[in-house]
């Protein structure tokens, strides 16, 4: 990124009072900061758009090469991977943005890499001790032969997270964007090639593992080449000191992240076990389709928010900054999700094949949850930035209990509606979480109401677009 030139105040002519000049200068600095935020977000969104476009274009092919039951196997594996990945670095990856000097940051990075490798090894030993019959509980015993993708995928994914957040610290968003596109392209190509060879779930899992972690090689190579001098400052003594200084991350943030991921992912494992058959596969496809447009902004803004939030908090401006980010997401993100929900029941069978129509109906149920998550996820690091790790810890365990409890209760009483129960639990949790975050940063009700009013018109426009799209897809389906 090119740096903006420094703002130099004009000589005092006596016409403008000093207080007015100071206010004007602050305004110009704020405007420049916002331009930087827009550029950074744009770069990451570009990479995320490219990555999601690659995956989206491959999906109609993938869903015709693999069955819903095979997708259910992928759903269980992906849920286990994403649950464990959340804390594989003990959250020292998130801590990278906190130190003011790079020597501390690179030692935190070394700490995170150390725990990613060690914990992945521990998980490999646990898998070695499990009998093959243990995988019958997941409803997919074939996982016993494929679960060995898990430990190396976890180690590489942890290193990729460290690399991403190192470049977030450096404001190097271009390499992150490129790595996402490389991962998506490699993963999709692997799944399609192995699907044509009829390898079954093996191709799906290998492609997913590549999509999830291959960027660690691209960013890691760049890091080793450009930061070799800084790496020489890594020492065991410094790592021990920083472990104690940042102990709140493994103590509170790591269990909190694990609970958050478990609340999201473990119900899918339960759905695969309690609703025997392809239900988890339908849910996985529906979740990806809803997540794709959401991640265009959500993932990019979360990393940019984390890079800006510590300084905003020190300046006492975290509340207005957080409301501004949430308001922008309401204006440009909520409408497309609603339009997608309107179109999906008509479009899924047409796009992915007739056996996937159930997934289109699940999109409707998932949409309120994903709207709430879209508004929450980019600013969720506010609790970490304001040193409320204990609050975040409690919130995520409450969410885990709520979501697992509702899924188990409905799955026991009426397995037919277990996916719908999962969707409802997500909406309840994320809307409550958003309210807590806005309160924690000191957001003002008037500012929030103003952002909601600004969002009404674009949301209404996308609703109309969704209705038109639904009629168009229905007509095409009838004609063809």
TrEMBL record:
It comes from the Bacteria. The chain crosses the membrane at residues 36-59, 71-94, 106-134, 146-168, 328-353, 359-379, 391-410, 422-443, 455-476. PANTHER family: POLYSACCHARIDE BIOSYNTHESIS PROTEIN, PST FAMILY PREDICTED COLANIC ACID TRANSPORTER. This is Oligosaccharide flippase family protein. The keyword Membrane applies. Its main location: membrane. It is found in: Cell membrane. It comes from Alteriqipengyuania abyssalis. InterPro entries: Poly_Biosynth_Transport. It is a multi-pass membrane protein. Keywords: Cell membrane, Membrane, Transmembrane, Transmembrane helix.
